[in-house]
Amino acid sequence: MPRLADTPLSVLDLAPIRQGGTIADSFRESVSLAQLTERLGFTRYWLAEHHSLDGIASAATAVLIGHIAGATSHIRVGSGGIMLPNHPPLVVAEQFGTLATLYPGRIDLGLGRAPGSDAATMQAMRRDPHAGVEDFPQRLAELQGFLGETQPGQRVRAVPGQGTQVPLWLLGSSGYSAQLAAREGLPFAFAAQFAPGYLHEALRLYRDNFRPSDTLDKPHAMVGLPVIAAESDERAEYLATTAQQKFLNLVRGGRTRSLPPVEALDWSPMERAQVQQFLGAAIIGGPATVKAGLERFLEQTGADELMLNTDVFEAEDRLRSYEIVAEAWRG
Prior knowledge:
Blueprint: E1 9-13, H1 23-40, E2 44-47, H2 61-70, E3 76-83, H3 89-102, E4 107-112, H4 119-124, H5 136-147, E5 168-172, H6 175-184, E6 188-191, H7 199-208, E7 221-229, H8 233-239, H9 241-252, H10 269-278, E8 283-285, H11 287-301, E9 305-309, H12 315-330
Parallel strand pairs: 1-2, 1-9, 2-3, 3-4, 4-5, 5-6, 6-7, 7-8, 7-9
């Protein structure tokens, strides 16, 4: 089984917007976090595509990836993920080919098939409501063609993009992407940061069905999970009420801006159970609790990498959480 000290750790950032804060604040705080986690030895810094959500500022994902890459020197920067059915594969190849040319050897392209939005927003994006159900493998193949070497007779080329071989990952919270990643011999990332229920079955499907490829000779699974570390268990549990409020408001159809932590939440038993479904994989606590939780999670999943998402109200608490994790990781 993998040991924590030997397991690459990475960052998933949704560029959260605070109550009373601005989007410009969110971008500055993302840069600060990327610079800190680069110094701490984290492997990747990924940003996620969401649209028309009041509390998430990473909608123009490729633009923000370039901003973060330009403010750092060696950490890999990428998407966790780009929702491929929202975009023509040629445009994605041009965007990420441009990024890979500007920041060679540092760009990852994680791909999902969900809309990252609601039905009205899907319509505003001109997304086909059936996209991603049947045509995702074809879109993936088209994208691979635009990032690979030019083929004889190829009429349309991604310029930039062609020949950049930007590393592709498939992201998912179900068995679909796990099995497609296995079939294509691609690395797989599971979104346990908000949908942990299918984690173990998805990892089993991926590993059992994996076919070696030019990209990978054996399965490589990364798992995203929520982690909130603080100086004590009590402090971490208090800070975690920000994430709990966000999911509670999501359940209620309310705003998703980050709210200050509270001593107690006003929620029904059903609402509490729904929030706990989202955050079922969360590791919350002081240094010893977080270290033990990460080691136990690795033992249970055999993950090759972990990608941590820390959702707290104050930027300083987010930075400190990653510092505590790094101390446990390297200690």
